[in-house]
Each structure stands twice: as structure tokens, then as C-alpha cells.
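A common beginner's mistake is to predict each chain separately and then try to dock the pieces by hand. The better habit, illustrated here, is to supply every component at once so that their relative placement is modeled jointly.
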Amino acid sequence: MTAAQVIFLITAVLTLGAGVYVVAARNLVHAALALIAAFFGVAVLFVLLQAGFLAAVQVVLYIGAIAILIIFAIMLTRRVMEDTGPQTNRQWWLAGIIALVLFGAIVFSLRLVPALQGVTAAAQPIPTDTIEKLGFAFVDPNQYLLPFELASVLLLVALIGSIVISADRK
Amino acid sequence: MLNEWTFIGLFLLMGAIFPGVPILLQSLVLGPKKNNPVKNSPYECGIETVGDTWVQFKVQYYIFGLVFVVFDVETIFLFPFAVAFDQVRLFMVVEVVIFILILAGGLVYAWRKGALEWV
Amino acid sequence: MVPLSWYLALAAALFCVGLYGVLARKNAVAILMSIELMLNAVNINLVAFWHYLTPQVPSGQMFTIIVLTVAAAEAAVGLALIISIYRRRSTVVAEEIDLMKW
Amino acid sequence: MDVGTLISNPVVAIREWLAQLLSNLGLAPQAADVILMILGILVIASVSLILPLFLIWFERRVVARMQDRIGPNRVGPQGLLQTIADAVKLLIKEDITPIGADKLVYNLAPILSVIAVISMWAVIPYAATMVGTTLNVGALYLVSVGSLGTLAIMMGGWSSNNKYALLGAFRTVAQLVSYEAPLLLSLLVPVILARSMDLNTIVRAQNVWFIVAAPIAALIFFVTSVAEVGRTPFDLLEAESEIVAGFHIEYTGMKFGMFFVAEFLHAFTVGALTAVLFLGGWRGPGAEQAPILGVGYFMLKAFAGYFVVILMRSALPRIRIDHMLDLNWKFLVPLALAVIVFTVLGDKVIGEAGITSPWARSGLLFLVNLVLAGLVYAVLSGAARRQRAEEAAGQAHDGQGALAEAAAHGEAGPHAAPAH
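With all components supplied together, the output reads:
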């Protein structure tokens, strides 16, 4: 087993464990902290996949912004902290079955795709100027200019929408 | 590239060990252990604690977090663009300026709506 | 090197954990957190495919960033909704938010 | 080993010597690499953790001088060992965990806050050849580990089970999170000018210091960084007189000490980052040939930045929370956006016009900044004039009202009536 495989397995176990804790924890702040651990695990996976830029973005955006926003919402809706009853609804067993069946289906169908079998290394060498290519692709009209500008419109709509929703006075 | 990130990973690990050692040294070895309930109670300048720690906070705090997230995402888009700056043409720069101005519109909206006021 | 299938299996597992959370949790904020887990699983897939199959084209990374953007927008609006509902009805339990049946 | 190289370029010389030694011992090159890495990390981490011992003494002396005192001067020569005595005191204090505290989170928070600051030193270039690691996303990495600090403060404030601590944690969100937006935006400007996020490349690109080409961005970066550290005038998250130290109110002994170390190291890091991003880092006469000189230049610039931080701390009062937020969202963020727009347009137009001389380019960008500063001045003075006019109108109105009221109630007013 190579070093990369060992690191992958450790990270995978920690990420999945954190993910399970997120959906199982009673204390929501603990769940949010576990979520941060899962985000960090995904960032490590990005590093293993040689997408360093995305790893940095993952930490800046998910841990530095979204997770803070979530912790914040938990603190604002403080009643949830006092919940002592079960944290799951009545159909939790059904949800578990659905999730398990879906996992089985995905793994089964992955085995059916011959193109994915035995891929252990990148098809081509990873270019060193990925970030540059990415930056150019965003503003090149022949590539991803539309998603780039749409992203800004989406963010604008999200900003306006959430201000309208949350700014109403009782 | 993985080599550099190995360095970062080891650095983070070491960064946890370095402050961890003196903390453990103090709490487990050197520090006295004479706890009592009064000493361990929350500190409020000598006055007994009244009520829950979870006092209600204003929703105002959330709005600032919200505006921040939007600008955070925006800046993330601009970083790769900055790295590719030598390749881009003038009209592409104008596209980016439009991108920034759309979001500046959001800031103006929040401002006019009074969401940025601390009330 | 790590085989591609490992990444895909991990992503599938993480996605299903998130799905279970979405379906089973009562608390709306917890549901939102589970959705973030699912989005992360998708991101792992996108980056893994980019790394193993088409490293010369930046599409995989591009879509990951778009997913991140959508996730940020979704978290912002979703949490704003939850806070607004909490302020009106003092609850964040998804089952009790049944305004249509009011 | 060449003695000249050892003196002028010690890190590379020692590194090569050690690599030679390890390969002679029969280690695999990868294992040798890892050992060298760990040695490098040990050196950087211990230097950045011992540095605050000196920084705390330095700052106390400077602040004392500003306040016409002497400052610590008893322990050791000029009081240099005072901080070590303080550290020993912290080490033998009792460790108190308040009732109802969340143990794991409570103990993790101070460690995380140190990690957040110390990790920045992994990518900061000390000299041409002395840098922890060259990361091609260095600038973004700085922000990402910086956001861990915000998290540490929130964790500490939440887990202490104390109202003041929680209040401090919430102010943190209002402040640190808000100021991260203009920080990121102003960090973008040196990245645009250098076309790279790697910090060593940014330093190498500064044939002319970036503070010439981007003075406004440098100012925004410096102010927001100081706000990120959370020191006076931006110390609302601690605010001893209001919320008695805020998020670290319940922390004692070494855990408190770690928050303290993180704060001082962070303040120095602000100086160091300003030096790297805007003041040319290790650049100076002869620094390319003899990297050891580069360390000197870098430290000189970093200390100059740190000195300004100390001066700000001792000269300015704490800013009010609404002013703090207004300064950020209504001034710094729009200004940072404008700086980016002006810089990208200006730089591209200059590039298209075929001007490549670094001095000409920086000079033209400086002019662009000057134009922007003029615009900002015009807008601000216009707004101030309108506000003054409004206030004057309001006051005149109020004054008339008050006069009319006074006339209606008689000369002395109703409250004075019993005295008659």
C-alpha cells in the first residue's frame, strides 16, 4: 500500500465518520463542528487529487463562510438546543433503507461501467497551470463566460432574497 | 505538488502539538487541582448567574454573515482570473468589471434597504 | 496510486449519509447541513473525474466552483428562511412547518 | 562545505549538507525528504512560537514609552525575561473548566487559534531561498487558515457557557467575518499585479514595491488585517470594559496564554504580510546574492509594520460597533471593489498600450489610484456636506421648537416651579 492510499483511507474514514456524526448528533453545534471536520476531510481529498486551488477554496468558503453561517443560524434559533426528544422523525428507518438501497444501487451500477474499471492513475499528466486555465475559461466567451456571469446574478438574487426574507420586522 | 502539501499537512500537525504540549503540561502536571463548584461556576464579575446562557441574539448579526458569504464567493471567482491576467484581453476585463458591478448592485440594495444599519 | 473507484465509493457513501440526514432529521438546520454533505459528495466525484479522466480541461474544477456557489447561495437563502420561520412560529422542526395545512 | 555559502545562504547550505548526510546513512530519498521537512517545520514553528515572547516585551516597552512609563525592566536585562517569567506563572496556574462547558470544544479552541496563526508562516518567504514551502495558492491559503482563527474564537466563546463569552463570539462574527470581505478583495490586488498567488513570486514581481502601484489596496489590507487580529481600535470582541475579555473570559493558565500568543504573533504576522505583499518582502540591495541579507530586510519591514500596529493600539480609542460596521460595509468594501475595477482596467490598458517598464507601469497605476482617491474624497466631502446641512436644518428646527416650548412654560420651565 502506498502512502497516498494510507492517507486516502484515513481521510475517508474520518470524513465518513464526521458525516455520520452530522446526521446522528443530538447537539446541533457538535453536528456543525463535525460538518466542518467533514469539509476539511474533503479538502484533503482535493489535495490528494492535486486540485490545491479547490482545497483552499473549500476551506475558505465552506469552513470560513458557510459553516460559520450555519453555526450562527443554530445560535439564533436557540430553542433547538433545548430539544431533548428524538432528533429524527418517525420514518427514520425508511430513510435508512432508502439510503442503503441507493448506495447499493450506485456501487452496483459503477461496477457495470467498464470505462471506470481499473483506472488507477490520471489519463494525462496533471498540468501545472490549472488555475490559469480555470481563470481564462471563466472569461472566455467560447468557454464558461455565461455560467460566470450567471453565478454573479445568482449571488445577487440570493443576497436580495435573503435580505427580504430575514429583514421583516415582527 | 503533493510535496508542498505534505509540508502543509505536517505543519498543521506540528502546529497542534506545539501549543498542546504546554497546555497538557499545565493542566495535568504543574497546575494545582483544587476544584470546587464555586470556582468552576461561570464568571460574571462576582454576581450569581441569572437565567440561561442562551440569550436571544439579533437577526442583524446573520445579515452581515450573509453579505460576507456573497462577497467571499465573488472573490473566489476573481482569484483564478487574477492569475490568468496576462492572457485575458481588454473585453474580458470588461466582463469581469460587469461581474463586480452586478454584485456591487447587491451591496447598494442592502444599503438602501437598511440591512447594513446596526440598530 | 489510489484507484478512481475508491473515490467514487466514498462519494456515494457520503451522498447516502447526507440523503439519510435529509430524510430522517427533524431539525431544519440539520437538514440543511445534510444537504451540504451531499453537495460535497458530488464535488468529490467531479474533482475525481477531472483528475483521472480529463485533467487537461478545466471543466471538472469549473463545475466544482459553480456547485460551491450554488451551495453558498442555497445556505444563505435556506438559513434566512429558517430564521424567519423561527421568528414567526418559534420552531425549526420541519414537520411542524406545514403552513399549507394551517 | 563552502564557508562563504554557509554565511550568505545558510538554509540551503545546511539543507544540502543534511541531505548528503542522510543519503550517506542509506536512507531512501523520500524518507530523507520527510525528515528534512520535519526539521524545517520544527525550526519555523519554534521560531514563530518563541518570537511572541520577545514581541510581548517589545510591545509593552513601546506602549509604556507612549504613556510616559518605563514598562517591564526588572527581570533580566531591560526586562527582557519578563515574558518568560509570565509564561512560567501561567504554567503553574490551576486549570479551570467552568460548569456546563463543552469540554472537547473548550480545550480545542486555543490550540486551533494558534494553528490558525502559526500556519501562515509555512508559506511566508523569509528570503529568496528561505521559505517553508512554495504553494501556488499561497495567498488563498493565508485566508483559509485565517478563517480557522474565526472558528477558534467562535468555538471558545460558545463552549465556555458564559454570557459574556457568547456575546464576544457573536461580536466576532460581526467583526472578523465582516472584515474578511475587504481583506480578501484587497489581497486580490497584489495577486493581479503579480499574476500569481505564490507569495515568493509576488515578492519577486515587486521590482517596484506594490505600495507604489496600489497604495489604497495596501491601506485597506493593513486596516482590515488589524481588525482581523482584533486589537485596539478594533478590540470589540474582547472589550474588557464591556464584556470583560469576551470569548476568553473563562480561560485560565496556558489556554489563555495560547490565545494571547496567537494574538501577538498574529499582530506581527500582519506586519510581515504587509511587507511581503506590498513592501517588497525580502527584496533589497544584495538580497539575491546573499539571502541572509534578505532575512534582515524582511524582518526590518515586518517590524516596521508591527510598530505601526503598536502605535495604532496605543494612540486610538476603541471604535463603536456601529461605526466599525459602517466603516467596513459602507467604506472599505465599496472602496476595495472600486480599487479592483480601477486596477484591472488600468493595468490592462497599460499592458495593451505596450508599456512594460516597471517604473512607468507603477507610476501610471499610482496616478490611477490618485484619481480614485480624488473621487472618494469628492464623494465623502459631498456626503459630509449634505449630512451637515441636514443636521443644521434639524438643529434649527429643534432649536425653534425648544424656544417655543420654553416660552410656553415660562422662563424657568415646569421643573423649577416648586422652588418659587
